[in-house]
Amino acid sequence: MKRIGVLTSGGDSPGMNAAVRAVVRKAIYHDVEVYGIYHGYSGLINGNIKKLEIGSVGDTIHRGGTILYSARCPEFRELEGQRKGIENLKKFGIEGLVVVGGDGSFRGAEKLTNHGYPTIGVPGTIDNDIPGTDFTIGFDTALNTVINAIDKIRDTATSHERTYVVEVMGRDAGDLALWSGLADGAESILIPEAEYDMQQIVARLKRGHERGKKHSIIIVAEGAGSGVEIGKQIEEATGFETRVTVLGHIQRGGSPTAFDRVLASRLGARAVELLLEGKGGRTVGIQNNKIVDHDINEILSVKHVIDEGMYQLSQELSI
Ligand code: ADP
């Protein structure tokens, strides 16, 4: 393999640049040319493709977002879009592709693979919802952003003796809520994977109040319900002054943590190795601190699950 491509797709996540940098540098180290495909699968269809050099990824390892830009591209879900994409890859002489993104982007990579085009998926999403890896690129940074925000909210919550509901990202996956809730000692954590009992939440808040607690924090993953609605219900049921903060897109941005930079570097480099070993249709990941790879079709047929033990622990520590 003498020429490969790299693109970032779907929701951006901090550390995507570090992954792209690793792909570019690792490939060039092995005398392989690298082409950047801009704006995700849209760029593949429109031929928005440019050669990347060693210097193209200089000064990017610490930057959030993605220098290749990202996009959502409904056209690529259709066979016609995929055909156009493959035509462009062939036109540029690109023999293998690395896709950095979430599970939607992996479905596109799976399609390319099934059309016989060697593609490797690198998990980049703040949701941490990709099977076959303990962590996705960007999760650690987003988690730290969330806990920094909650620490600040906690200060004002204590001063005013208020209850705070904090809504974090996670439409289908509660990892960000669960980890930030544990890291911040939240009273309750509401995640899409588990039913919640409002009476139990209210009882826990009242118990804390009776013990003399000055503030309470409830974390809600967006997929578990609207923070605003849940805040209203809590205020009505407890009579405690309750405020709601929806953290929103600040969770996607910022300089990646050391963990995400190192993870992205290791995964990006492994993706290139796999292509050079003649393997396509794989996803890379980290499991028990080892870099691993899996069949992309298999990974996409498995559903991400929450760590039950951690969820149970969060309940036990917030009695
Ligand atoms: P993420 O990768 O963050 O999960 P999306 O779900 O929006 O983000 O997916 C990103 C892009 O991947 C989509 O805009 C589309 O171009 C492509 N994609 C998603 N699902 C499929 C699919 N089933 N087949 C082909 N391409 C897909």
From TrEMBL:
Catalytic activity: beta-D-fructose 6-phosphate + ATP = beta-D-fructose 1,6-bisphosphate + ADP + H(+)
Binding-site list for Mg(2+): 103
Record text on activity regulation: Allosterically activated by ADP and other diphosphonucleosides, and allosterically inhibited by phosphoenolpyruvate.
Cofactor(s) the record lists: Mg(2+)
Cross-referenced PROSITE patterns: PHOSPHOFRUCTOKINASE
Pfam families per record: PFK
InterPro entries cross-referenced by the UniProt entry: ATP_PFK, ATP_PFK_prok-type, PFKA_ATP_prok, Phosphofructokinase_CS, Phosphofructokinase_dom, PKF_sf
Pathway: Carbohydrate degradation; glycolysis; D-glyceraldehyde 3-phosphate and glycerone phosphate from D-glucose: step 3/4
Cell location: Cytoplasm
Annotated residues for binding of ATP: 11, 72-73, 102-105
Function noted in UniProt: Catalyzes the phosphorylation of D-fructose 6-phosphate to fructose 1,6-bisphosphate by ATP, the first committing step of glycolysis.
Similarity comment: Belongs to the phosphofructokinase type A (PFKA) family. ATP-dependent PFK group I subfamily. Prokaryotic clade 'B1' sub-subfamily.
NCBIfam families referenced in this protein's UniProt entry, alphabetically: PFKA_ATP, PRK03202.1
Protein name: ATP-dependent 6-phosphofructokinase
This protein's encoding gene: pfkA
